[in-house]
Amino acid sequence: MANAKAEPLADNDGPMGREKTKRSWDATATRARPMTPRISSRMVLRVAANAGVYAFAFICAFPFLWMLSTALKPENNSITNSFFVGYPLTWSNFSSAWSFFPFLRFMVNSAIMSLGGALVVIVSSATGGYAFGRLRFPGRDKFFFVYVATLLVPTGVTIIPLFLLSRYLGLYNTYWGLIFPISFTAFGTFLMRQFFRSLPRELSDSARVDGASEFRTFFQIIVPLIRPAVAVLGVFTFVADWSNFLWPLIETQSTNLSTLTLGLSEFQSEFGSYTSYMMAGAVLTVIPTVVLVILLQKYLVRGLAFTSFGGR
């Protein structure tokens, strides 16, 4: 019998070959079928979170949209439920509101009160926060606790004492009376103290080693680092003073010192109200605060991050 040479097995023969062929068929079939996108739970949560954020933003913006819609309505349709549709847009309401009372004069008074109040609050809160946050003296924490506890006192309780103090100091019916009596708050001191505590203590220690006094350390080393916190406190104070109605009503007697919030109240009287003109004036009143927030948005985000998380 002739010796026959055994031929080598083909690649597809045997268990290994059949398994390899099956995998290649599965891969071909997979490429041939259209791929269906897989919706993961993370994607669903992200879409739901974005939808919730947009819904909350719309709820917050709705009063301003309604105000703008009412400002563009004719006066005889000002109390209707229509929203930007069903009526001609009356842009002349803004000029009518501007000329209804000395709008520019009242705006200047509001700017003086808000800018002056913000400046006083920033200076007093920065120095107080530096003392409570960086300096060491007996009873520091107890004094700070008592000072912060004044936030629990309602504003209405302090109105009469502040008014009597203003009359006693001769500040009644003046710009100084609009600014100073309400410009010292525990909130600003607390906010600045939180920011000061986040700064490394080595900065002030190295300045003292170099012979710098406490005032020079504060103004040349610390103050340039607190711009985000100053922006946050300044914007909060400016907006609060700009929209303050009760204190200018009590503190001023002359029309030359009236603010925009007092001017808007003139659209209402015992004989009726001018709703469209009032909303147009409110839109013009809101514009400066919106512009300020947009210009300082970068510092606001940084300042809120630092003061909320202790600078870490």
Quaternary structure of the protein: single chain
Overall pLDDT level: 82
CATH architecture label of the largest domain:
Orthogonal Bundle
Strand content: under 5%
Radius of gyration: 33 Å
Q: Which series of helices and strands comes N to C?
A: HHHHHHHHHHHHHEEHH
CATH superfamily caption of the largest domain: MetI-like
The number of helical runs is: 15
Topology:
Blueprint: H1 14-32, H2 41-71, H3 92-100, H4 103-134, H5 140-149, H6 155-168, H7 175-179, H8 186-198, H9 201-209, H10 214-222, H11 227-242, H12 246-251, H13 260-264, E1 268-269, E2 272-273, H14 275-295, H15 297-308
Antiparallel strand pairs: 1-2
Helix pairs in contact: 2-14, 3-14, 4-8, 4-11, 8-15, 9-10, 11-15
Question: What report would you give on this structure?
Answer:
The termini are far apart. Helices cover 68% and strands 1% of the residues. It is built from 15 helices and two strands. It folds into two domains: 43 residues, no CATH class; 208 residues, Orthogonal Bundle (MetI-like fold), CATH 1.10.3720. A hairpin with a 2-residue loop joins β1 and β2. Strands 1-2 form a two-stranded antiparallel ribbon. By secondary structure, it is mainly alpha-helical. The N terminus is likely disordered.
